[in-house]
Amino acid sequence: ITSIMVDIHRILPADWDIIYLGHCNNSEGQSGEPLPGSDNNSSDYKLFKSEKPYCTFAYAVSYAGALKLLEKLGNSTKSSHKPLDVELVNIIQSKEINSYTLVPPIIIKSEKSHSDKEISYIHILKNSTREYF
């Protein structure tokens, strides 16, 4: 994860508020182009402007982004009491925060299986700790 994040941080715009490292929307990154520099990256991972990154498996928030999210989500009188991931997508689509999504995700939720070592997305876990088990 560290080497991926070092590569991604080089192309991440300075005004980023949130970056999704794990999500459950398979259509993220399919309707747009990766950010400039993603194609120069030797990694299989590309960075896209977020569209609808449902699920909050893993994300990073900048200091400025944290302040914005506290303002948007912190006032319970304004809250619609929707799930957090839905609230975040609404804020992203209203362009109130600058959000980016890493594709494919580097952190995923595995499907339950008969073995605790079986996971359904093994093909995208390049350089995963799982290789060493």
UniProtKB/TrEMBL annotation:
This is 9011_t:CDS:1.
